[in-house]
Give the backbone structure.
Amino acid sequence: MIVIDAASPIPPFEQLRAQLARQIQDRTLAVGTRLPPIRHLAADLGLAVNTVGRAYRELEEAGLIETRGRAGSFVSAAGEEGRERARRAAADYASVIASVGIDTDEAIRIVQAALTSGTPAPS
């Protein structure tokens, strides 16, 4: 279920994009699921067609959905591939952390800093 909060400072397209991305990532929307047509979803949510279109474009650019012309937009398998890449990267990171003797708490702080600022935390 998608809920758009008109009073939120977050733009409606971003609310929609984030909610769909979360549903794809937590597998509420499975690979291959057909998304509602843009015009239909816009009408259901009381949004402009361009607002929904922008959210779909950003999801497509992120590899979470794919558009197949008149057939519509579908949840992409690329999201699963991305999750698998992240798992492999995490395993590689854990191996490096163990080999250099960094403790778990510091390793997690490094990851959190990298996720929020793009740079590792100072040691």
Notes: The first strand starts at residue 65 and ends at 67. The mean pLDDT is 90. Residues 97 and 104 are 8 Å apart (CA to CA).
